[in-house]
Design brief:
Elements (H helix, E strand, L loop, with lengths): L9 H24 L5 E10 L4 E9 L5 H21 L3 H4 L2 E4 L1
Parallel strand pairs: 2-3
Antiparallel strand pairs: 1-2
Helix pairs in contact: 1-2
Length: 101
């Protein structure tokens, strides 16, 4: 059990509570994205708000992939991750995750 520090901010508490979900989500999105040959390295950017954090998953494009394919891939990844998050009880984290291609 984690003891709460007296001066711990809401943002810090939020970040701490999201760590296990972030790890699960990050492992799954990395694994799922491997099936798309035009997606390169993924970067996770953590963008703080006042009391929450946005988790931005940004993928590099490896070749000249058309906009329609990128858009359909983004939708496929998003739908998969939303379903995965529901199945694994990490919906709160998913609602703070942003996926960029």
């Amino acid at each position: 059990m984690v003891k709460k520090m007296r001066n711990e901010s809401e943002l810090t508490r939020f970040q701490r509570s999201m760590e296990p979900s972030k790890e699960i989500f990050t492992q799954e999105i990395r694994k799922f994205a491997k099936k798309f040959d035009f997606l390169g390295e993924m970067t996770l950017i953590e963008e703080p708000d006042i009391t929450t954090m946005d988790y931005i998953y940004s993928f590099k494009i490896l070749n000249e992939t058309g906009r329609d394919r990128r858009d359909s891939t983004l939708l496929e990844i998003y739908n998969h991750m939303e379903k995965f998050s529901k199945e694994n009880g990490i919906c709160e984290f998913c609602s703070n995750a942003i996926i960029w291609i």
